[in-house]
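User: I've been going back and forth on whether these two constructs are worth ordering. Before I decide, could you fold them both?

Assistant: Sure. I'll take them in the order you sent them. The first construct and its structure tokens:
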Amino acid sequence: MDQEDDAALSDLPTDPPVVVHGVQPGRPPFRRVEIRHAPVGRAFSLDDVAEFLRRAGLDDPDPRDPELVAWREAGPDVWQ
């Protein structure tokens, strides 16, 4: 691969670095969270997702930002 190939790849859309998966059964229900394809834990609320983002080095993160977080199966307001 040469520099032109690298430049072309940088123009391709990328997935958000954070993925919050669908609600899993539990007491209480939770959602699995991954950052850059690595599992980071279980979130029980939107605040938990924000905390994972802070731990990853983001100051004042917005977990509702679609360029930052991909919500699978349901959006950020669904926790059960």
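The second construct, handled the same way:
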Amino acid sequence: MKKLIIICVFLSILPVLYSCGFKESVVQPDNQSYLWFTGNTVNASAMVDNNREFKIEPGYYLDSHGQKVKKSGKALYEVKPGKHEVVVKRNAEIIVHRVLMISAGATKEVRVP
């Protein structure tokens, strides 16, 4: 009889313990992608997909409309997911020329020597 009571108590507590800590949520990734320029970005300018050339400034990033947005930390450039050609110049000399595939919500690092 004692065993039956213990089994019944255990089976009644089991669903309560099983449900503890379970959290259901929906994660929606960012639809934009970003290029992150690192390294020696002093006097460097970049061009993405033969668009307008812009100066790489660590305290700013350019959004998809070409507007400067102040940001502390990383020098980011907002791009759409997909294939992008990136050219970085310093004193009119090409120092980086890469073709990158960037997925949605990803940030790809472009190291400037």
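Notes on the second construct follow. The helical segments are 2-19. The chain is about 15% helix and 45% strand.
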